[in-house]
Amino acid sequence: MPEWTKEQEKAINHHGHDILVSASAGSGKTTILIERIIEMIKHGENVDNLLVATFTEAAAAEMKDRLINRLKDLSNDHLIKNVLRKHIQKQIFKVPIANISTLHAFCLSIIKKFYYIIDLDPNFRLLSDDTEKSIIQDQALDNVRNKYYEKHDKDFLTLVDNFSNDRSDDGLTDIIYKLYNFAITNDKTDKWLDQLTNIYTIEGKLNESNFYKLLYAPEIMRKLDQIKDLLDSGLDLAAGDEASNTYTPVFQDMIKKIEKVNEDIKLDVSYDEIRNEVFDLSFTTKKRAPKDAESDPVRLEIVKSIRKVLGDKVTKDLVNNFFLLDEKDTLKEISKAKDLIIKLTEVERNFMKEFAKLKNRQQVLDFNDLEHMAMKILTTEVDGNKVALQFYQNKFHEIMLDEYQDINAMQEGIIQLLKTKDNNIFMVGDIKQSIYGFRQAAPYIFAGKYEDYQKDENPNELIQLSKNFRSSKQVDDLVNTIFTRIFDKNIGEIDYDRQSELVVGTNFPDEVDTDSEMYVLSNEDDTNKVEKRQLQIRFTAKRIQKLINDEFKIFDAKKGEVRTIKYSDIAILVRNRNNNTDLISYFSKEEIPLMVTDAQNYFQTTELQIMMSMLEIVDNPRQDIPLVAVLRSPIVGLNEEELAQIRLVNKNEDYYTAVLDYISDENSQADLVRKLKSFLLQLETYRDFSNKNTIARLIWKIYQETAILEYVSGMPGGKQRSANLHALYQRASDYENNNLKGLHAFIDFIQRMEKMDKDLSQPNSIEATDDTVKVMTIHASKGLEFPVVILLDAGGSFNMRDVNSETLFDSELGLGLTVLNNTTRVAIRTPQHSLISEKRNVSTVSEEMRLLYVALTRAKQKIIVVGYEKDTTKMLNKWDQIKISSNGVIDDGSRLSAKSYQNLIGIGALNSDQRIKSHSHYAKNKDCRLNFDVVTDDLLDKNSDGNLLKVVDVREPTDLFKQTVNTILDFEYPYQEAVETTAYQSVSEIKGLFADPDDEKMAQSNLLSDRGRYNMESFAKPKFLAQSKVSSADVGSATHLLLQRVSIDKQPELIDFQNLVDDLVNNRILEPEVAKKIDLVSLANFYQSELGQEIVANNESVSREVPFSSLMPAKKLFKKKIDNESFNDKILVHGIIDGVIELEDGIKIFDYKTDNVTSQNLNEKINDYSGQLNLYAQAISTIKNKPILGKYLYFLKINEMVDLNKN
After folding, report:
1. For residues 441-461, average pLDDT
2. UvrD-like helicase ATP-binding domain: from which residue to which, for each copy (predicted)?
3. Helix 297-312 / helix 872-880 crossing angle, nearest 10 deg
4. Does domain 602-755 have CATH number 1.10.486.10?
5. Sign of dihedral through CA atoms 977, 981, 983, 986?
6. 396 by DSSP, 3-state: which?
7. What is the C-alpha to C-alpha distance for residues 678 and 964, in angstroms, rounded to an integer?
8. H or E, element range at 984
9. Cβ contacts of residue 399 below 8 Å, gap of 6+?
10. For 427, phi and psi rounded to 5 degrees?
11. Which of 225, 232, 453, 1075 measures 20 to 30 Å from 1096, CA to CA?
12. Using CB atoms within 10 A of its CB, is residue 584 exposed (0-12), middle (13-18) or buried (19+)?
């Protein structure tokens, strides 16, 4: 039985009211949640009478597993009574079907049970793919938009003009989609849309409106207070020496002006008067300091920078953003914006109706529909009763919500519906870890209850879990030091006070290093983004190598022991996935094993670019970029010079035409012409195949015939690349399983994913148990823990797109619009836009702070922060400009302008009051053991241990050393057969191995049996030996092409083959010289044979050119080479069967041969090919799970069919 803390016991055992548990990082909230359920079960509760909502499906699955294991342990306890044991055993069987799931999954269960209440067809499908959803969305918006265009609706055209440009109306499209995403997560969607014009409804004077008094004026005063805080900080610094003190009167004068503006705002002075006062906010001229004045250069530089920053704040923050126009013009723009919103909401509603109609027609629902339909079901009355609501209110005795800080308004509405006086809500979360604002998570819901539940008159309870059982004291100290300075209600949603601080719950031994480290890389050169990124990656790799080489010690708290670090102890956390490709590349070069858990850039990988280009030209070969990409790729293997030669033949038309012209040109290089012909023949085969088969089958055919899977497997990171290609195949299969068809549509689908930034995550090619450094986004790391955490690219700027966009969205205030001036074509900000922009700025920085909190609290033992800054002196000066308020929190302005994790850590833990200098570029925090270093180029270029290479003494080898060397040299590898037998063989390479399954007849003279792969001697002849005449192989390939392409809807005749040849020659797929050599009569004769007529009779069951891959025992294929009975390795055999007839009771296969066969050598040829056909039969029988009814060889030259089953 664990020893619970007092607060944990409360969370487990308290009942009778709503409870909000604020569980800090590492406090064991999931364990507490499970123990609460266990205790309820022990007191007779049934698990199916609880609603337990988690944030992810993985979390729900883990909770069920842990709950079952706890119940099993409990049932095996010999001290419990039999009655309780039976009850517990019943619960074990109930857990898998209990309502322990995401809220989306719970809503889906409501719909499936009560669909009839809202007249919903139960045969719906859930849209789990955002891209498929976007296709339907686009269609819905196109339908709505076209109706407006057809009516020549002037207000709609004005709307388009305001939000779009002269090339497209994509701007309006984006706004409609964003507005939809905001509206749909509100539990009162229609009401929310209705209220969008409220803040734009102003009658009379601006300063007398509710908008101005309640929203706009307070924001202006807050901005003025921020400037005043910075001035106060400047005054404190200016008092330090005589030279700096010359700025004191300047700052004091500005403070008086600001106080006057604030007073006049409170006195309801008119907007224009306030505007004039703001325009007059300028600094007086500074007096010169005496020549002999005492001066601190650093202090003086900081004071000067404050003066400059303040000038920018007045000009940009106040004048440009809040007082650009006078009252008259401002009211005009507000009125225009209101008209735009009225039209926009009309279009939005029409779009929502059309979107719903199309989904209904296709019988699909998206995740937002689940919540809205569940809400509708719960609130709909049947015969005067809310049947569904009453059912669930009676069913659930308690509602438990995990990750409550990330709930949205719609989900909260559903939960409040289910609540009654008899069923309480138990909420667990941590607002400091609310990081899903982009999903419209509403941390203000948690914050409101956090504050209300602390009031004496509130019957509900707030429980704080602050003890961190995960991290070392130094990790906790660093987090507490930073966040007590930067986090409060204004920026962050709640105060980071004593209740919120992390309390050490695990003691680490003194012998292990738990100090935190922060490195700011600096380069005097003008370094671009890519170089900054690579510099940090290079440094990070060196730091990891040093940890490994130094055998850094890790404390395993669960085992209570100290051990040596492994790669898997280290996690690199990143803000986004932009660095992942460079990380993978550099770490691979440095031989540092890496697992990227959510690597974006999937479509930017070489192998995916090649495959997508191939699919694009199969769809339409007259596309220059993808065509050249495939020609240059390993699939064809042309070089730049050869590509240029092709283009020089035809400079004006598309590249495909240039290829055809090059083939026809008598002066073209024969070798290049051969490559191009072979490729065009292959491409035409794929184009024909794609018309009759699924996309997934096409992709697999390309994989098999080009061997691209094998090729990329041999590249650096080959395991991952192979996994990427398999993922594309799976994506195509999933696409078609959702009733979406067509290669062109699939290509559009993938391109849409790229455009929407909905990149597929690269599939993991490494097991989680492997000893690898983990790389993941901070979002993906939530809930995980690692001994060593490296926060990479800490100096990267926050994404402020939601602050600076011309149209802004806010769940509370609505829309912030800019209005386009028809004359100047300049977008003018409305006051509402400025207000929402400021609010979004605060919420964005707040969420970034919470992301930083999540990142730092993933660490168990050590935090390493790596960032970049060109001008580190300027950076340190900014850190020193901060002003600390009486409650210990840094002023709002400094926090809002930090704009990077590096700066947040700097102002929180490394300002001048906290730094202790060690030497010119090194410092540490005196309170939380944060070691800080500025790393310049010369330091970075040293060896990873920072020291020069040491001279090693040369010594005579010892006897033990000699014995070790001899052991190594005498070693015999036990798996030599596996080395000499490749894991992959084509049937054409091993077809001579068998005359029949029991009689191996291997033509040794034709095999390179002592090489790593058993294959035929097929080296290309040198050019001086090459023959210009048509070869028998060319004729054989062309013959097979005709037999593959000819229509078998009816019996083909000679004229059919002649017409087919003419088409292929005209399309430059078949050379005229080769066409002349084909024996068309023998082909027509084939279809008059018994086999040919059977093929025509069963044409719908016939497949031609059927590729396959099959695993076969190596020792069965290579009996003469492998005599080791214990050798059980298998080989992947790949081949293409000329034809398969799949009947109800079995399969028949056939293979045409164009050899020069006579009656004298017929038996010899049959023996040569029987092994090949036996392999085909074995493979296709295994794949199709059907018996082989016939195996036929057909020799075209002598019009002879051989049934190998009879022969």
Report:
1. 93
2. 2-472
3. 80
4. yes
5. negative
6. coil
7. 54
8. strand 984-986
9. 50, 51, 53, 415, 418, 419, 423, 424, 425, 426
10. -115, 130
11. 1075
12. buried
Return the ∠ at Cα 717 (arms to 716 and 719), rounded to 5°: 125
d(CA 189, CA 182): 9
The pLDDT value recorded for residue 239 is 82
User: Which runs of consecutive H residues, i.e. helices, occur in 1134-1161?
Assistant: none
Q: 3-state class of 949 per DSSP?
A: coil
Instruction: Give, to the nearest 10 degrees, the angle between helix 130-151 and helix 327-361.
Output: 120
Q: Which CATH architecture has domain 977-1203?
A: Alpha-Beta Complex (3.90)
Identify which of 631, 743, 622 has the alpha carbon closest to the alpha carbon of residue 689: 743
What is the DSSP pairing of strand 1130-1142 with strand 50-54? unpaired
Pick out the residues of the known binding site. Answer: 23-30
Beta strand spans in 19-61 (E): 19-23, 50-54
Structure tokens at 399: 């509602």
Radius of gyration of the chain measured on its C-alpha atoms: 37
Q: Say what the pLDDT of residue 145 is.
A: 94
Going by DSSP bridges, is the β-strand pair 1130-1142/1147-1153 parallel, antiparallel, or unpaired? antiparallel
Tens of pLDDT, residues 652-697: 999 999 999 999 988 889 889 999 999 999 999 999 999 889 999 9
The residues with which 923 forms a beta bridge, in sequence order, are 917, 932
Distance from C-alpha of 1144 to C-alpha of 1101, rounded to nearest angstrom: 10
Please, are residues 1048 and 1095 in contact by the beta-carbon 8 Å criterion? yes
Question: What six digits make up the tokens of 544?
Answer: 């990891």
Question: Where do we find the tokens 């590349």?
Answer: 585
User: Binding-site residues for ATP, please?
Assistant: 23-30
The CA distance from 1187 to 1091, in Å, is: 19
Instruction: Please list the residue range(s) of the chain that carry CATH number 3.90.320.10.
Output: 977-1203
Q: According to CATH, where is 3.40.50.300 located in the chain? A: 6-124+365-465, 516-598+772-799+837-940
What is the Cα–Cα distance from 1204 to 933, expressed in whole angstroms?
Answer: 78
Alpha carbons 616 and 1158: distance in angstroms, whole number:
46
Per-residue pLDDT tens digits for 925-942: 666 788 999 988 655 554
pLDDT above 80: residue 766: no
* Mean pLDDT value across the chain: 85
pLDDT digits (tens, 9 = 90+) for 21-36: 999 999 999 999 999 9
Q: Secondary structure of 1010-1045 in the HEC alphabet?
A: CCCCCCECCCCCCHHHCCCCCCHHHHHHHHHHHHHH
* Phi, psi angle pair for 619, to nearest 5°: -70, -45
Instruction: Give the chain's largest Cα–Cα span.
Output: 118
End-to-end CA distance of the chain, in Å? 76
What are the C-alpha distances in Å from 106 to residues 36, 113, 962? 21, 11, 69
The Cα 982–Cα 713 span in angstroms is: 14
Higher pLDDT, 376 or 878: 376
Fold of 6-124+365-465: Rossmann fold (3.40.50)
State the DSSP H helix or E strand holding residue 952, giving kind and residue range, or none if neither.
Answer: none
Specify the pTM: 0.73
Q: For residue range 1036-1069, what is the model confidence (pLDDT) as tens digits?
A: 888 988 998 899 989 999 998 999 998 888 877 7
DSSP string, 285-303: PPPPPPTT----HHHHHHH
Q: Are 772 and 567 in contact (CB under 8 A)?
A: yes
Dihedral Cα 642, 643, 645, 650, nearest 10 deg: 160
Please, are residues 686 and 702 in contact by the beta-carbon 8 Å criterion? yes
- The H or E element spanning position 507 is none
- The bridge status of strand 461-465 relative to strand 19-23 is parallel
For CATH 1.10.486.10, list the domain ranges present in the chain. Answer: 602-755
Residue carrying structure tokens 């090619």: 765
Closest CA to 835 of 200, 173, 192: 200
In this prediction, residues 317-334 reach a mean pLDDT of: 91
The answer to whether 904 touches 797, Cβ cutoff 8 Å, is: no
Phi, psi of 1136 (to 5 degrees): -130, 120
